[in-house]
Amino acid sequence: MSDWLTLFKEAVAASSITRVAEQLGISRTAASLVLGEKYPAKTDKIAAKVLDVFARLTCPHTNVEISHAECRALSISAVPTSSPQAMRHWRACQSCPHKGGK
Length: 102
Known about the structure:
By secondary structure, the chain is mainly α. Helix content is 58%, strand content 6%. The model has no long low-confidence stretch (mean pLDDT 90).
């Protein structure tokens, strides 16, 4: 089983298929078909969404687990000029190996 599919099944088990479908921006029907491994089309886009929302990585700057989406948002955000702490974090993001949630 793929890593993304395992993450998907764990998310559904921890919540509900309806909630997970909402978080991924897909229909409940599509989520149900994916869960049953009967989705008729390619699952590349759904897999990317699952990894983006549910996969976690440890931020080297804060040493806190964040989602790929949070990582990407931090690394591509505008330069923060109102907070020295936010500026340090943003600078660390620019040279981070995870930049963009990779």
